[in-house]
Amino acid sequence: MHLNQQALRVEGLRKSFRSGASELVLFDNLSFELARGEMLAIVGASGAGKSTLLHILGAVDKPSTGEIYCAQFRLSSLSENAAADFRNREVGFVWQFHYLLPEFTALENIAMPLLMRGDSKANAEKEALQWLQEVGLAQRSHHRAGELSGGEQQRAALARALITKPKILLADEPTGDLDSRTADTVFELIARLHSDFQLSSVIATHNFGFARRCHRVLRLENGKIEEIAPASLAE
Q1: Mean pLDDT of the region 147-153
Q2: For 211-221, how does the pLDDT look when each residue is reduced to its tens digit (9 = 90+)?
């Protein structure tokens, strides 16, 4: 794949932890690429390391060895402050739990990333209102996070992830806490926003139905990663 077609490149990634005198290897020698505009699913059993992998891809955590390249950045070379700036500008995160701040309204929660990087309150709230409309929550803008349903909370979390106009979306079991009907609605929204805003997305999911609808699927198992055909995933 040509460099300008890559959104992200992973080379020889390893993550291990010390446990007393022994070493626990979560995964080793992972290498793969994410193309611009691609929606990539990562599947695997609980504990396989999917969440840790997404944390590393988003510069929240660091690998034991290996490199990740994103845009002009080599993530291992970033200082703590540079990594924080990278996360704020280049990557949008959506987790299984929404992590909305309960004392703030939906509007305030979504505006938060822009305020944290120094935007004015007026501009941040203007952008947040546009994103509330984008995810179908304009009428809920002044409701506190706890007053929203599970699906509404996850839609608000998606708007908060994308308000900074990131190039990459990382989603870790984004529908895992939702009933099947609400989960399908949220996934459809993720797929639409991925397309509309020309995102490159990595989605860790247990939902094989959703994984089959991605462009490519990687399975993380026994510390290794392999590409599998989306159609091969059983219901």
Answers
A1: 91
A2: 999 999 999 99
Q: Which of 208, 197, 148 is nearest to 173 (CA)?
A: 208
Name the packing angle between helices 106-116 and 150-162 (round to 10°). 20
Beta bridge partners of 183: none
130, part of any domain:
yes
* DSSP 8-state assignment for residue 166: -
Cα 57 to Cα 150, 151, 213, distances in angstroms? 26, 26, 22
Q: Examine residue 176 and state whether it is found in any structural domain, yes or no.
A: yes
Asked if residues 163 and 93 have their Cβ atoms less than 8 Å apart, the reply is no
Q: Do the domain assignments include residue 102?
A: yes
Query: Where do runs of H (alpha helix) occur along the chain?
Result: 50-57, 80-90, 106-116, 121-134, 150-162, 180-196, 208-212
Please give the Cα distance from 111 to 34 (Å, whole number): 28
Specify the CATH number for the domain of residue 130.
3.40.50.300
Please state the pTM of the whole predicted model: 0.91
DSSP state, 45? -
Domain count, the chain: 1
Answer yes or no: is 183 within a domain. Answer: yes
How far is the C-alpha of 87 from the C-alpha of 85, rounded, in Å? 5
Question: Could you tell me the residue range of the domain that residue 157 belongs to?
Answer: 37-62+80-230
Task: Quickly list DSSP for 69-119.
Answer: EETTEEGGG--HHHHHHHHHHHEEEE-SS----TTSBHHHHHHHHHHHTT-
202 close to 171: Cβ distance less than 8 angstroms? yes
**Model confidence at 53: pLDDT above 90:** yes
